Amino acid sequence: MPRWYRRVLVSLRRANVFFLLEVAASTILTLMLAVSWLTVTASSTEGQILPSRLTSSLLIGTLVPAMALLVLAGRRLAIRRAAKSVLGSSGRLHVRLVWLFSLIAAIPTLLVVVFASLLFQSGVEFWFSDNSRGMLENANKLARGYYEDKLRDVGNETVTMAGDIRDYLDQAPITSTEFAEGYSFQVLSRQLNESAILERTPDGTLRTAAIVDPEKTDRQQRVTPADLKRLDAGEAVVVRASAERIEAVTPIDKNRGIYLFAARTSNALALEQWERAQTVLKAYDMLTTRARALQLRFNLALFGVSLALVGVAVWAALRFADRQVAPLAELVSAARTIGSGNFAMRVAQNSGTDEVGLLARAFNRMTRQLEGQTQALVTANAQLEVRRAFIEAVLESITAGIVSIGRDGAVQLINSSAQRVLLADGPTSPIGRPLGEVSPVLAQLVASGQPTNVIQYPVRGDLRTLAVRVVQDSNGHVITFEDITRQLLDQRRAAWSDVARRIAHEIKNPLTPIQLATERLRRRYGRQIENDPELFEELTSTIIRQVGDLRKMVDEFSSFARLPKPVFRAEDASDLVRQSLFLQEVAHTTIDFSFACDATSMPLQCDRHQFGQVMTNVLKNAVEAIESRAKSEEIDYRGRVAVTLAGDHETVTVSVTDNGIGLPAERDRILEPYMTTREKGTGLGLAIVHKIVEEHGGEMAFTPEPGGGTRVTMRFARDPLSTSDSHVEQD
């Protein structure tokens, strides 16, 4: 499809144009129904049929949006059916088939409806037009005028005859022969068939005074009370007509109550024609009313049949689409199953020679080939997985860190030893990340091109010494490094121990003779010196005191060099901490000491003497830090030492917090032997403490406190022997 056409389709889908079409079609249909109802109602009150163009326009205007709604409903139903199938929610094939079938049914149906409506409405308009109605009304008027002329003639003859009879009565009585002859002459000359003179009696009944009835009609009542009422009301003559005769009544003398009755045999054919003309006109009027209803019924029939045809077309399209889409849906479902890894999936064999059957057979051949190739790949991958697991196990068992980077500098492989050293910020995997983000130091070393080097690397606040080796291959670089911090520390401690033994051996031998000689000089010559004896006493005392200090230093050297192996026994760590804390409280009453423990007892395997030595040295350092700060602080300063004891299943943690002078600037070297910031310190106290903590399977850390002070955290293993055995097995 052209690009502009695809853009138009995308824009229509985003605008949800089909929903807007449904709303527009519903609105138009509602308006057209309302207009049709108002039009039909208004025309029925006028008594006229609907014009053909108006009727056809209303029908087409109502049918088009109704068909559109039906087609859109079929589309929505097609999308809903497609959503339930495996083809997804688009339902394009269903929609296209519904659209095609709807057009095939709707367009011809609409054309036929237009033609039929115009033809029918034109015929109705022709037969029930004003001209046709005018011809019938003229014929009816002609017949009626002829008959009414006969009635008028009888009435006029009766009135004239009543005047003549009134003259006869004035000349002769009613019983005379002359009156009878004159009366009879009047009846015959006026072509009347019957006549009677009636007189009203006092009781209101009519009496026949004279009568001329050649045909001898036996009539009981010629004038009715209704006729008399009309005459009394002022009418000159009352004329009645029937199929046989025309009768008229007129007063001769209203005051005396004398009336003349006359009758003439009517023309049956004229009356029949008049009545037939009236019947035809009434039938035409009824037919006109039925023609309006027939118009509506015919339009409704066209409307219903048209919608039924379109509905049947939509239903047939849906059924046809279901039958056509079912094989494709089966193929799609099978393809998705194969995509999920089930290559043994097959579709139902179709023996037909059409395209669907060929597609099914080709699909089954493809799946058989894929199944064979996949089985081969699975076998190869299994072998590769075994090799990969072996290589990973080897890499994980190596204590050295191994990092493999590609040509782009991104990390491709890293073992757990390297992760523990390089990833101190969390468990985020470095795979795929640049080496410069993971370890800028190693990235600089790789960029320098040096194959081997020894670097200082910070790990979680500690400075580690790493021996790094970089090997380059065709795929990138492989970096291996070994943490030699412990080795260097052990070597340094061994060297310091050897130095301490040598110093203790070389210094301790001459100290005793020097001290003895000085004491002998003071005892023998102290009294003999007369010139400045105080100076002699001060000098000898200084020598003896310095020799004592040297002896203490030599003892510390000896203790550091020959620290005995700990003897582990079951102890209560809380009791040992309380004992050490009690000694410091007694010796330093100006300092506030506090102790907190999360349990009543804290079992621990330790050397009682060495554990007490650790607590004494740490508490002594805290007291000395507080005293150093007290010299430079205000008078209201008061030192505080807080000791907390906590434990879990494997370790016991002792924390000593003071508000003293804080950590020195060279805090990284605080645990090295002979590292001290005090004037009389040897720098061996914390080194001995650190060595004891390590031999107890623990570790030691120093952190500064907010506002000044230091927190010393010592973690001891509850069972150091089992911990050391596990370390030996891992090594």
Structural description of this entry:
This protein is α+β, with helices and mostly antiparallel strands. Among the domains are: 173 residues, no CATH class; 116 residues, 2-Layer Sandwich (Beta-Lactamase), CATH 3.30.450.40; 68 residues; 152 residues, Heat Shock Protein 90 (2-Layer Sandwich). It has 18 helices and 17 strands. The strands form 4 sheets. Strands 2-1-5-4-3 form a 5-stranded antiparallel β-sheet. Strands 7-6-10-9-8 form a 5-stranded antiparallel β-sheet. The chain has a 5-stranded mixed β-sheet with strand order 12-14-15-17-16, covered by helices on one side. The longest helix has 72 residues. The protein is elongated. The two termini are 70 Å apart. The C terminus is likely disordered. It comes from Novosphingobium taihuense. InterPro entries: BphY/WalK/GraS-like, HAMP_dom, HATPase_C_sf, HATPase_dom, His_kinase_dom, HisK_dim/P_dom, HisK_dim/P_sf, NtrY. It is found in: Cell membrane. It holds the Pfam family HisKA. Keywords: ATP-binding, Cell membrane, Kinase, Membrane, Nucleotide-binding, Phosphoprotein, Transferase, Transmembrane, Transmembrane helix, Two-component regulatory system.
Q: Main sheet, how many strands, which sense, barrel?
A: 5 strands, antiparallel
Mean pLDDT: 76
Q: How many helices in DSSP terms?
A: 18
Rg, Cα atoms, Å: 67 Å
Give the % helix: 55-70%
In order across it, which strands form the biggest sheet?
2-1-5-4-3
Rough shape? elongated
Low-confidence stretches: 726-731
Q: What percentage of amino acids are in beta strands?
A: 15-25%
Number of strands: 17
* Oligomer type: single chain
- Distance, first to last CA: 70 Å
Class of secondary structure makeup? alpha+beta
Organism: Novosphingobium taihuense
Membrane topology: Multi-pass membrane protein
Transmembrane segments: 16-38, 58-77, 97-120
Protein name: histidine kinase
